[in-house]
Design goal:
With about 120 residues, the protein is mostly helical. Helix content is about 80%, strand content about 0%.
Length: about 120
């Protein structure tokens, strides 16, 4: 793949991944009613919305920032844990198939961002 194309795809996947974490991160932090309802249905305590919301926001910021290579690895790992955990939580509670698949699609987007990141954003 041409470097220019790879770089464009990286930034598209990275910005979309960041948005996919910033928006629900804010929703978790301000405890929008549908977030509170979903978390309750999944069996999570209300305070978990604050914890997960903060982590989502931090992860999104870290993958956008230059440098901090090791922190980026942790942010991507956290995103993978969040998305696979969300999908599995929904599956175990008998949620609708689209609610199980959506986090998995975002997981693919995060993996594309991680895989295509430029050399100066990778650990040696």
């Amino acid at each position: 793949m041409e470097d220019k194309t790879k770089n464009r795809l990286y930034w598209i996947a990275t910005v979309l991944s960041a948005i996919a974490f910033i928006v629900p991160g804010i929703a978790n932090l301000i405890r929008l009613p549908h977030i509170v309802y979903d978390m309750s249905q999944l069996g999570y305590p209300l305070y978990f919305t604050t914890i997960i919301g903060g982590w989502k926001m931090l992860g999104a910021v870290v993958i956008l920032m230059p440098k901090f290579k090791r922190l980026k690895e942790w942010a991507y790992a956290g995103m993978v844990f969040d998305l696979t955990g969300a999908s599995l939580s929904r599956m175990f509670t008998g949620d609708q198939i689209q609610m199980i698949i959506i986090p998995l699609l975002l997981f693919v987007l995060v993996i594309i961002s991680w895989y295509l990141r430029p050399k100066d954003r990778k650990l040696e």
